[in-house]
Amino acid sequence: MYYVYILSSIHKTLYTGVTNDLLRRLYEHKNGLVPGFTRKYKVDRLVYFEAAEDIRAAIAREKQIKGWVRSKKEALIDSTNPAWNDLGEDF
User: Fold this and answer.
1) CATH number of the domain to which 38 belongs
2) pLDDT reported for residue 5
3) FRET label pair with 80: which of 30, 45, 86, 90, CA 20 to 30 Å apart?
4) Domains contained in the chain, number
């Protein structure tokens, strides 16, 4: 199983990624183990995710979401998580 996910900072800076182990990846983001954008801007709150059985489909979906304007990404998050809760707290 593969996952496309969107993380947010407390200031709603967004990051979209793909992984085959959502729990591990979320742990890495929350603990600053991923160098670069997410660590620099403290983007570590899981606000959206979806599963795919095929890596090619997951990567295509990640690229699709990354190509969207911010308002469309926000609408996607709002559709399943209108309060922008940290879904990672449930893991």
Assistant:
1) 3.40.1440.10
2) 98
3) 30
4) 1
